[in-house]
Every structure is written in C-alpha cells, then in structure tokens.
Amino acid sequence: MKLFISILVIVSLIVLPEYSQATGQSSARSVAMGGAFTALATGLDAYRYNPANLGLDSYRQNSLEIIGLGANINNNSFSLSDYNNYTGALLTSEDKEDILGKIPADGLVLSADMEASAMGLSMGPMVFSVSGVGIADVALSKDIIDLVLNGNSFNDTISLTGSYSDAIGYVAAGISYGVPVYTVGSKQLAVGATFNYIRGLATEQIIELDGFLATFETGYEGTGRMVARTATGGNGYSLDIGASLRLNDDYTVGVRVKNFLSSISWSNNTEEHGYYFSFDTMTIDNMNGDYIVSDDYSIDIPDFSTNLPSVMNVGLANTSGNLLWTVDWEQGFRRAAGATKKPRLSAGLEWTGLVSILALRSGVSIGGNRPNALSFGTGMQFSKIFLDMAVVTGGTFSPYSSKGVNFAISTGLNF
C-alpha cells in the first residue's frame, strides 16, 4: 500500500499549481486571428505584441481599454468529445489503448494561461498598461498514465522522466514606446521597447524530479525524489524589444523578442519542499512493514531569483483593404511556463466588407506545446466604443474538438 501512496504523493505534487500565457491573451482581436499579430498590432495591442509598431505613423491610436480578459486552459491529448466518451465509463482494454494512443511520447501536458487587463491607455507612440497574468504548465510522463490505467506488469519499468511543473502569477505595470528611424516615401522602419515593473504574486517550480518503479521476478524496486521551490511575493522587471518595417501601404513585417531581459526577486515566504521514497526487492511478504523508506520536508530558504522565458515572434501582415491577413512564427528558447522550444505557426484573417462597423475574424495555429486550434471572433465599433470577442475550438469547427477552454473579450474607447 505504501508503494501506491508514494506514487500518488509524487503525482499530486506534480499537479499542485493553482496559478495560471503570457501577455496577449486578453486581446480578443488577436485571439480571434490565431494570435498572429506581430506585424498587425496597433495601439494597445502593440504593447502586447510588438512595441515597434507604435513607431509606424499608420499604427498609432488614441484609445482607452476598459476591460480585457482572456483565458486559455487546455491539454495536448484529449478533446471534449473524448471527455464525454470516457468520463464515468467502465474502460475496456481497447478504451485504455485508445486513451494511451492519444498521449504523445513526451507525455500529457496541461496548461493554463490567463490575463486580465485592468487598464490600458494608448496615446500616439506611447502605451501605458496594467494587467494581471497567470501561467501554469504541467507535464505527466506517459508511464504514469499507463500505471494509472493498467497497473504495473512483470518486467516493466515506470519512469518519472519527462514530468515537470512550472507556475507563476504576477501583476505587470508597463510602458511601451516606438520611434521611426528611417522613412522614405511609404516605406518606414521603426524600433520600440516595452518596460514592465513586475509585482510577483506567487511561483512554484519543480527544480528536481526523478524516479522509477521496476517489477522483477524477485519483487519490486524503485526510488523517487522531488524538490520544489515556492514563494508568495517578489519584485522585478521585464524588457521587450521589437522592430517593424512597413514595406509599402499594403505590407508590414515585424519581429519582437518578449522578455529579452527579465528578473524577479522572490523574497516572501520562500520555501523548499521535498519528497523521496525508495525500496529494494519488495515482495508481498514485506510490503506492509517498514520496508519502504520515505520522507518529506518543507524548509525556509534564502531569497531567490527567476526570469521569464524569452520568446521571439516574426510576422508578416497585409494591412490594407477590406480583407486583412497576417502570419506569425513563434519560437521559444527554453521550456518554461508559457514557453517551449517547439515552434508554433499562426495565421489570421479579418474581413470588414459586410458593414463598416462590423469585423469578422478567424485564425488557425499549429505546433508548439499547445493543441492545434481554429479561432473565431467579431469586432464591433459603435461611435467611439469598441467591443471584441473571440472563441477557440480544436482541429475542426465543432466545439467538441476543443482540447480545452479558450475565450477572450475586450472593450473600450477610441478617441
């Protein structure tokens, strides 16, 4: 029994985070267009996607965002249809094979990305914004899922390798500024930067995680260890940089490096939590005794620092006419909450040919550590008031293909 308790404790520690993408999730216009916004973002959205756009004459806006809210909670394996099929059902061996077949070799990845914009003001080449961000990424080794479904079999080894957890919540107060550096006719080159003061709310990082369980003729053998750092308060900063080139009146290209520099110093309730277990050649005769060695601890630790993952976006956009389109390439440089080294490609459309006050939008995004997705949305402009809304499904138009919940809404004034 202690064997299964040990495994369950490690699994529960892996999925501990309660905090939940990074800046941009609260822009309903961007979410509806697949997140491909590096070369198209104007005004307040330039703060989120590329501050250099504020240096382009045609991209500047005077606007006030009153509410911006977005949430993206998903996994990389199971759709709503799968959930409906298997929840509460008596699973057959074929069902279990189907479930395991849907999980990639690198494991089940769960992510929660949320952003709430408290207030944003865009005035010409400058933007001021305050927002709350929560990000969490959790991965479970495929071996763990196999153990839960099928139990352990003879001559089988179950590994924790590939499992991880990373979560952070913070409030960011930022300023963006863009400036043109070269203008010839309709061609214009601009650069820009965004500086954020960050108030860290909470973080959890598993900094050590390894272990295995093996079944042999002589009995069970196994060992496991997990070490995590947590904190509930800190201060820091982040710096985004970007460049934009308007090729002519129709096309713009842009590049942005988010979190080019960043650091958060955690100083409140800094703790280390650990758990380990080990056993050697355990059998049915000795598993009820004190044969398993296990322990857990929580200790205070000195202040520590973390940084936000750097992510580069490169985009191209058509910016004129009733039908706008845009494409983006996103590349992270390390695995962390809200980032991955796997590239992601996004594309979006916006049509305003029906009536001038109504915009219809759609997008697609593939790759990275998130599921492939189709997105849809609309934008309405009533005098000076704007309202944008967006939803995201899975690989088809059906909401049952969605591997999570993703929506965004934003409203404010253009003046």
Task: List strands and helices in order, with pairings.
Blueprint: H1 2-14, H2 28-32, H3 43-49, E1 61-75, H4 80-86, H5 93-102, E2 108-124, E3 126-140, H6 142-150, E4 157-159, E5 164-184, E6 187-216, E7 219-231, E8 234-246, E9 251-266, E10 271-282, E11 293-300, E12 304-306, E13 311-318, E14 323-332, E15 344-351, E16 358-367, E17 373-382, E18 385-393, E19 404-414
Antiparallel strand pairs: 1-2, 1-19, 2-3, 3-5, 4-6, 5-6, 6-7, 6-8, 7-10, 8-9, 9-12, 9-13, 10-11, 13-14, 14-15, 15-16, 16-17, 17-18, 18-19
Overview of this protein structure:
- The structure is a single chain.
- With 415 residues, the protein is mainly beta.
- The chain has one domain: Beta Barrel (Porin), CATH 2.40.160.
- It contains six helices and 19 strands.
- The protein has helices spanning 2-14, 28-32, 43-49, 80-86, 93-102, 142-150; strands spanning 61-75, 108-124, 126-140, 157-159, 164-184, 187-216, 219-231, 234-246, 251-266, 271-282, 293-300, 304-306, 311-318, 323-332, 344-351, 358-367, 373-382, 385-393, 404-414.
- β15 and β16 form a beta hairpin.
- The longest helix is centred in the N-terminal third of the chain and has 13 residues, at 2-14.
- It is globular and about 80 Å long.
- The termini are far apart.
- The relative contact order is 0.20.
- Mean pLDDT is 85; it is low at 1-22.
